[in-house]
Amino acid sequence: MAQSKRSFWFLGVVFAVVLAWYFLWSAITPKGQPPLTRLTTDIPFVNQFNRAGSNVRMILLLSPT
Asked: Whole-model pTM?
């Protein structure tokens, strides 16, 4: 009985990790769409954003759906 509960919880955790990876960390985009971009310090947008640290800043993300 205890073994089956342990196996059930293990499979549940594995399933949750796989779902989280698929929806949160995979960088797969549909065909025809440019690949996702990670915002790191090497990107000019991040440098400009960080340079204006003493001012009020706002980012507006729009989705076509």
From this structure: 0.41
For residue 19, give Cα distances in angstroms to 14, 23, 38.
9, 6, 21
Beta strands in 1-65 (DSSP E): none
Domains identified in the chain, total number: 1
56 located within any domain: no
Phi, psi angle pair for 22, to nearest 5°: -65, -45
Q: Centre a 10 Å sphere on the Cβ of residue 49 and count the other Cβ atoms it contains.
A: 13
Query: Whats the size of the chain, residue-wise?
Result: 65
Q: How far apart are CA 31 and CA 37, in angstroms?
A: 16
pLDDT along the chain (65 residues), means of 10: 83 92 75 76 76 80 80
Query: Is 33 a domain residue?
Result: yes
